[in-house]
Design a protein that fits this description.
heterodimer, A: 110 residues, mainly alpha, Helix Hairpins, 65% helix, elongated, B: 514 residues, two-stranded antiparallel sheet, 22 helices, 74% helix, 2% strand
Chain lengths: 110, 514
Amino acid sequence: MEIIKSLSIGALFGIGLYQLLRRNVIRSAIGLVIISNAVNLFLLSIGAYDGVVEAYAKAVGQRSDALPQALILTAIVISLGGFAFVLALLYVIAARYRTGDSDEVKGLSH
Amino acid sequence: MTLSLLAILPIIVPLTAAAVALLLRRNFQLQAAWAFGAMLTAFAASAYLLWTVWSTGRPVVYQMGRWPAPFGISVVADLLSATMAVMVQLVFVFGFIYALGAKDKAVHHATFYPLFLCLVTGLTGGMLTGDIFNLFVMVELVVISGTVLTAMSDDRYGPEAAYKYFLISTVASFCLLFGVGCLYMSYGTLNMADLAARIAADQSPALLPAAVVFLAVTFMIKSAVVPFHFWQPDFHTASPTPVSAMLSSVVVKIGVYGFLRMTTLLMPHADWLRTMLIALGIVGIVFGGLAAAGTHNAKRMFAYSTLAQIGFIHVGVGWGTPLSLAAAILFTFNHALIKSTMLMLSGYLASRAPVKTASFGVLRGTGKYAPLAGVLFFIGGMALAGIPPTNGFISKLTLFQSGVQAAQGGDVNGTLTYWVPLLLLGVSSIITLVYVFRALMKIWWEPFKPDAPDAKVKPYGDSLLAPGLMIAACVALGIWAQPLLQLSQDASAWIRQPQAYVQAVLGEPMGWLK
């Protein structure tokens, strides 16, 4: 379980970072969402320390630390609001520059 | 109990006022008056908070919902936090005065003042909070309100700059969240005082170095240290003037505050962090100064100049002696005043120019019609370069003294980390003079020859009241520097005793801690 968890967090972070660095502005926004999910998954897994188990473990009678779940809720709400705004921003950029290529979005380059 | 409520007033007043200001969106005059009144109230509260903390010599701690310290969220106003809160809110009061007299369309939008109040809430909250997750929430508040304020700018490149800033800053916030997760997994607490006590007692957890790196990356992006500065010049060029004046002066200071806390309270054991700050500071001073000298836009020039000034602050934090920490705090305070003034003056010139932009090509010669702005620009430029009798001189002098003192008392191996920044202090002042005089020459010396033959300088622009008052404050703080210097020295003495901070937050040491 540990190894699956670590690998999936790492893979999500890698995919997100790769998408973030792409030249298409929409892909970079999607990369941001994937990274935020990697962070949330990481926060979910930190609930397991000092003998408490993860929130998703099926062991009966064992408890999990609830605080990281509260952290995830806060982080999800914040990234939801931010992502909604960034989509609106992308709409304006696409309408104004007529392109989704970040190399062409360079009005401020000098 | 009533005294401890004082710690939360500078956060709660602008936050509540922002919500109420949204309800007042139909009546713009009322909304602006309400927002300005709320800002003045918050500033009065934070000034009183600073006075209380300084005169009683004890931090003011508020536990949210009366949950005892490591379990609830603490709001801690020690001398550093209170000084930073006063700095932020003082600059924002001037920002409001500028916004009230500004001609931008964005400033007259119904959401401008609520967002501006949210920005000050996030900054003050980030500096007063004693809970590291709450720091993340406040930083996100700053990022989102800053992004929206820039996206609604009159400048047609506003959305582009906002998008760049949002992308990079959100990655920084996720790094902060990763760091918070690493710390929580290692020590099972989010309270900064509790974390400090536990980290000091036990540095064995495997995730602690990862947490240090993640937090360092976060604060490097937030304070626009050179390899992480890419968002900053674009963002400052495109945002509305009152906002860009706030961004360059106080928004980057949240990263500086983070490093001050990291190197003294949370991770004093990480020596490499201090060495790295000195190295990055040196790179920033050289790069920022040279880049500023080669720009074609007044706002962009000051954005690059911020990189150099932040470099000096990081060098001060990196030296870590009592006097150099005091110099870093003093530098932070003075730079906030100077830089916001200079950006306001650039914005004023842009508002008078035929086309609303701070580009030197358009501004060339327009200074003939704005002589008062020229005088203010000259004094501000002197302050930026560190020429007496301005506050910039006091901060550079203190930093220089602390460096000489540390170099004489320091070990032989580390002398390079002292003498290179000391040399750069002089070199950077000269570079600053070069680019300030370049701007003065282009705007006030050269003749007014617009591209379009019928282009005229507008008779009225933004109000010059705010930059005028701030220049007066800069000169006053340069002549009557003792109180602020004393305050910085006391704050630096406080943050060098993290045990006092820990004890003030946690109260009596609890049984289960031992």
